[in-house]
Design brief:
The complex is a heterodimer. By secondary structure, chain A is mostly helical. In chain A, about 75% of the residues lie in helices and about 0% in strands. The longest helix of chain A is centred in the first third of the chain and has 62 residues. Chain B contains one helix and 28 strands. In chain B, the strands form seven sheets. Chain B has a four-stranded antiparallel sheet, with no helix packed on it. In chain B, strands 2-3-4-5 form a four-stranded antiparallel sheet, with no helix packed on it. A four-stranded antiparallel sheet of chain B has the order 6-7-8-9, with no helix packed on it. The radius of gyration of chain B is 20 Å and the shape is globular. The chains are: A mainly alpha, B mainly beta. At the A-B interface, helix 18, helix 21, helix 24 and helix 25 of A face loops of B. Chain B: InterPro entries: Beta-prop_EIPR1-like, EIPR1, WD40/YVTN_repeat-like_dom_sf, WD40_repeat_dom_sf, WD40_rpt. Chain B: It comes from Triticum turgidum subsp. durum.
């Protein structure tokens, strides 16, 4: 009613929606709204009324007076005016709604009336039509009845004639029976004869005394003959088992009265006997009851098969399959039992193969075994195909080959670790070149082992047997997967050997934790080198070989990618190698650190033979008399490191340093050079007081100390050296020295400077670090007066002479 | 500011130094205390403050300290108190000091020595305050013993309550007080870490065969502790399962000297080393992610725990301290006496 023409469609929608809402609210279809309406009268207090005035207005118990009172009391004029305007608008709104609803109702009523009128006119013509239809259907029915009665007699006659003809045919058959039986006997088709006779038997029994008498007699004579012949066949050993079994079945069908249990037994005795089995006294148990006999026989057969497994090749599978066949013919319903038996047999035999797997057997042997089993399975499958033996054995073979591959890898891993461990632990005395040979052996073991494995596995896929062709793709995948897994496991094992992994693995228990000190450092170094070898040599070789003979595969879905990822393995080994090398350096540094720590923390140097300078000893300014013995120990450790590293890591060929020529070579070769160094160090000494002004210079040099570790002798040795000297510096910084302490350090460093040249090419870094130690001692000394250069020189020469003397005595 | 470095440098320390500490009790600003280590010169304690809004560290107070400082700890409940451990030649001692009121003049007023902890018969290594707030106890550790003191700063007195002896252990070097438990303290020696119960003054359990340089309790999670070791870098342990660490972090190229949990984000760990570097680590410890770490696991798959390595230092770093006022800041002190304040904010976003 308030709609404008321009906005007609939207207004119409709007209107329809509003109408629907109004109707809904009127009939309370919305449960929430209904609840709200129902709830409000339950608490008619003024507060509730003010809280929800609109709902109260709609409620039945709305009291306009109270509402007005509350409103007037609570609101000011402005609010009241507003409320007035609002309410007026609401009232107008409600009026409009009401009008609209009435109009809608009227509309609907008119359209309903129209519909009813239309229905009335349509129904009027229908009745006459229906009556016509009824009369037509009645006439059709009466015609059909007449046809039926007129044909009835003829049909009965036809049926009678048909029955007579059938009877005549049967009589003819009976009369023909004797001749037919004779024909069968002549042809040797006893089965047919028996079938004919059993078919005619009911008739003979019913009408045997009448005109069929002659016929019956002739037939029975013929059947006697059949029975005789069958019996004869039964007892002839030369007949095939199948034929004899057939005879037994036929006799059984003829209800051949007595002894049939014995006959069956006899027959089966032979059958089972062919499988090299003695049933023995069990035959007495067999009575006339065939069921009993059957179950007994099955048990015996089972025993027989079990025995067969223990002495596998005595009876061939051909015999077994024959037995099965015969048995199946005699007792057709025993198939399920036989299937079980066959399954048991093969499961057992596969178990034996599995047992053999626990030892490491060559692939060819395994293959021969599996092939044999596969052939047997196919043989038996011809007899009982329901047992699905090929599928079964295919599955089992798959498992076995998988297991075989896994075991092979496991063995290789153990062998490698054995080689490593025995070589690195047994030789407590690390003699020259022994380590080197050990290293070489491990390398050869790894690569040769991998190649051997590949060779083995190649046998697996080269076989042309049906079985293996089916499995080829799978085997290829397994081999690739196996290598991936193997290398990963080997890496894990290396970590375990090195003692590093104790931190990670919870399961590797406390045993490893205790052993952490016992892990030989050489082993760690060897592991590092082995990692490099595997990464650079073995993996490319394996990858190549795999690509040669084990490509393809892909039986598993491509989403996992190829099973063997050389890149990943290489990365793994590279990082492990670095870790081991770092670990080696750490262990060595640690050991030397401990040595250094002892030198500073043990004050009682007097205990030791010839060192009598206490570092911290106020008011006693003795000049140091000789190089501290910790320097000897330090050099000894370095020598150890160098000899280990040289044997295992690759590096430039350096002059070999004989332990017995230390003194002589050093003194003879480096005398002038050392003086040069001394001069330099003296100038350094004077300069060192201005240390703090030269920080920038030191900073540049400092960067060289912590360089990246590489797989060379030089890198490892110099890293160990640098770290140790750095540690020495740190230890010195923690002390406070008197003059003699400082001078002792000065002397020690000076001596080290000349000795360490033996080990190291990176002279600049080392001399820088030695200087740093000196500086640190200088800082931590209350009275830093250095030794005079000539005295220093004299002491060092004395030490060198002593070393020379000692080595000469040795 | 120096080229290449993002940190704010304070170069006011004239001598070599090892100790820096956050003034936790100063709630209003980021403040640190640093003490020098000079055998021959007069040593100083610097009160360093970050000017708010400006990227500058200023010296808020410079105090002379009679001896070289080997350990410096700020009192967690009174910003004017701190403790030092010092040596002078053969002598040694530990004191609690009070910073005098500064009336305008910032230069060299005398520190007020409240009391000394002088019952020690061996060389004192460090003094520990209970890390989280007001507590009237103090712990001091020397080579062989651990002392529990009852302190009263207002009366300038300190009394030994109890004493525990390390017996046959090698020398004690330091320790940490469990912020979750008044009665638990961890001490370190050259070759092991021991836990003490202060009620009985007995050792409870230990981590053996570890050359531990520093130890720090996780401020948020009970029973989690971080150690800095020569051999294994940084390790995180659960005190209930001391057989194996929860996590290994590689640490430094040389010794890892100090390790500190961030006071707010306890997964952030800061470590300082003698390789002149400070490393910032992200180490999540939870029961869930300690499991999958297995020796066979490829290391490339693990998340890189090192967030950042600050290497712009010229000498070994012995002192690091997080700011408790702004937990994204930390100060580091290298041996040459340079204090550098860095913000870890750019690396937090990678979490």
């Amino acid at each position: 009613m308030t709609t404008t023409v321009g906005a007609a469609p939207t207004a119409m929608d709007e209107k329809a929606r509003r109408t629907r809402d109004l109707l809904a609210s009127f009939y309370n279809t919305d449960p929430a709204a209904a609840g709200a309406v129902a709830a409000s009268p339950a608490r008619p207090s003024p507060t509730a009324a003010t809280a929800s005035p609109l709902e109260s207005i709609n409620s039945t118990s709305f009291n306009p007076d109270v509402y007005m009172d509350v409103l007037v009391q609570q609101s000011n004029l402005e609010a009241l005016l507003q409320r007035h305007v609002k309410m007026a608008a609401e009232i107008k709104n409600l009026d409009t709604d009401l009008q609209m609803l009435v109009y809608e109702n009227y509309n609907k009523f008119i359209s309903a009336t129209d519909t009813i009128k239309r229905m009335k006119t349509n129904i009027a013509g229908m009745e006459t039509n229906m009556e016509q239809l009824l009369s037509k259907i009645t006439s059709v029915q009466s015609r059909s009845d007449t046809v039926n009665t007129s044909l009835f007699n003829k049909r009965e006659n036809i049926e009678k004639l048909h029955r007579t003809r059938n009877l005549l045919r049967k009589v003819q058959f009976i009369y023909d029976l004797p001749t037919r039986l004779n024909k069968c006997i002549k042809a040797g088709a006893y089965a047919d004869a028996v079938r004919f006779f059993t078919g005619a038997k009911p008739i003979f029994e019913a009408y045997g005394d009448t005109s069929f008498q002659d016929c019956k007699k002739a037939s029975e004579e013929a059947m006697d003959l059949v029975i005789q012949q069958l019996q004869a066949k039964l007892y002839t050993d030369s007949e095939p088992i199948e034929a004899r079994a057939e005879a037994v079945v036929l006799l059984k069908q003829l209800n051949f009265p007595i002894e049939n249990g014995c006959i069956v037994h006899l027959c089966l005795f032979d059958i089972v006997g062919s499988a090299d089995l003695k049933i023995g006294s069990g035959c007495d148990l067999f009575g006339a009851q065939v069921d009993n006999l059957k179950s007994n026989l099955l048990e015996k057969l089972e025993d027989c098969l079990l025995n067969l497994q223990t002495e596998p090749m005595q009876a061939s599978v051909g015999d077994i399959s024959k037995t099965f066949r015969a048995y199946l013919i005699i007792f057709p319903d025993s198939e399920s039992r036989l299937i079980e038996l066959a399954h048991a047999l093969f499961t057992n035999r596969y178990e034996t193969v599995r047992g053999a797997l626990k030892e490491r057997i060559p692939s060819t042997d395994l293959l021969a075994m599996l092939r044999g089993l596969w052939e047997d399975a196919t043989a038996i499958d011809e007899v009982i195909s329901e047992a699905a033996l090929p599928a079964f054995s295919l599955e089992t073979t798959r498992d076995i080959i998988k297991q075989h591959i896994a075991t092979a890898f496991l063995h290789l891993q153990t062998e490698i670790s054995d080689v490593l461990v025995t070589h690195s632990t047994s030789n407590e005395k690390l003699e020259e070149s022994q380590l080197q040979t050990a290293m070489e052996k491990s390398k050869i073991k790894v690569s040769q082992g991998c190649i051997d494995l590949l060779q083995e596995f190649r046998h697996l896929i080269d076989g042309n047997t049906e079985l293996l062709v089916k499995l080829k793709d799978l085997i290829i995948d397994w081999v690739q997967e196996g290598f991936q897994d193997f290398f990963q496991k080997l890496d894990g094992h290396f970590h375990l050997l090195s003692g590093r992994s104790t931190g990670f693995s919870q399961e590797s228990s406390t045993v490893d934790f205790v052993q952490i000190d016992k892990v030989p450092t050489v082993l760690v170094l060897m592991l590092a080198q082995l990692c490099v070898f595997i990464e650079q040599t073995t993996i490319p070789k394996v990858t190549e070989d795999l690509a040669d003979s084990f490509s393809g595969g892909g039986a598993r879905s491509s989403e996992y990618g190829p099973p063997f990822v050389p890149g990943e393995i290489c990365r793994l080994y590279r990082s492990s190698g670095e870790k081991f090398l770092q670990h080696y350096v750490n262990i060595k540094t640690q050991k030397i650190s401990k040595l250094l720590n002892k030198r500073f923390s043990t004050p009682v140097w007097l205990k030791f033979a010839h060192v009598c300078v206490l570092y911290i000893q106020p008011k006693q300014h003795k000049e140091p008399r000789e190089v501290n013995m910790f320097v000897d120990l330090l050099l000894l450790e370095f020598n150890g490191v160098v000899s280990e590293v040289k044997q295992i890591l690759p590096g430039l060929i350096r002059r070999h340093r004989h332990s017995d020529s230390t003194g002589s070579t050093t003194s003879s070769r480096s005398n002038p050079m050392r003086e040069d160094m001394l001069n330099r160090s003296n100038t350094n000494r004077s300069r060192s007081q201005f240390l703090e002004n030269h920080l920038a210079k030191l900073f540049e040099q400092k960067m060289e100390i912590f360089t990246k570790l590489e797989y060379t002798q030089e890198s490892v040795i110099s890293t160990v050296l640098k770290l140790c000297l750095k540690s020495l510096q740190e230890f010195v910084r923690l002390q406070t020295f008197n003059r003699s302490g400082f001078q002792q350090i000065q002397l020690d460093m000076e001596f080290l400077k000349s000795s360490l040249k033996e080990f190291i090419d990176d002279e600049a870094a080392i001399s820088f670090l030695l200087k740093e130690v000196n500086n640190a001692a200088h800082e931590r000394c209350l009275d830093p007066i250095p030794l005079e250069a000539p005295i220093l020189d004299k002491l060092i020469n004395a030490k060198l002479a002593k070393i020379k003397e000692q080595s000469a005595n040795m | 500011m120096q080229g290449g470095s993002s940190g704010i440098v304070y170069g006011g320390l004239k001598y070599q130094a090892r100790c820096i500490t956050d003034v936790r009790a100063d709630a209003g600003s980021t403040t640190f205390l640093a003490g020098t280590l000079s055998l021959k010169e007069e040593n100083e304690v610097h009160l360093i403050r970050l000017l708010p809004g400006e990227n500058e560290l200023v010296c808020d107070g410079l105090f002379y300290h009679p001896n070289e400082i080997w350990d410096l700890k700020s009192c967690p409940f009174d910003h004017r108190l701190f403790s030092t451990v010092y040596t002078s030649g053969e002598g040694y001692g530990a004191s609690v000091w009070k910073i005098p009121e500064l009336y305008g003049q910032s230069n060299s007023p005398q520190l007020e020595q409240l009391f000394t902890l002088d019952d020690h018969t061996d060389k004192i290594r460090c003094v520990l305050w209970w890390p989280l707030g007001k507590h009237d106890k103090l712990i001091s550790i020397d080579d062989r013993n651990i002392f529990l003191w009852n302190i009263d700063p207002s009366n300038k007195s300190a009394k030994v309550i109890s004493q525990g002896s390390a017996d046959m252990l090698p020398n004690l070097r330091g320790g940490a007080w469990d912020p979750h438990n008044h009665n638990a303290v961890a001490t370190i020696t050259d070759s092991s870490l021991h836990f003490w119960d202060l009620r009985s003054m007995k050792r409870s359990n230990a981590i053996e065969h570890a050359h531990i340089q520093d130890v720090d309790y996780n401020p948020k999670k009970q029973n989690i502790i971080a150690t800095a070791e020569d051999e294994f870098g940084i390790r995180l342990w659960d005190l209930r399962m001391l057989k194996h660490p929860l996590k290994d972090l590689p640490g430094h190229s040389h010794w890892t000297w100090a390790v500190r949990h961030n006071p707010e984000y306890d997964e952030l760990i800061l470590s300082a080393g003698t390789d002149s570097a400070v490393n910032l680590w992200l180490a999540k410890v939870g029961t869930d992610d300690s499991g999958p770490e297995s020796p066979s696991g490829s290391p490339t798959r693990q998340e890189e725990p090192l967030l950042h390595s600050y290497t712009d230092y010229e000498d070994s770093i012995y002192g690091i301290a997080w700011s408790s006022h702004d937990p994204s800041l930390f100060a580091s002190l290298s041996y040459d006496g340079r204090v550098v304040l860095e913000s870890v904010k750019p690396h937090l976003q990678r979490k």
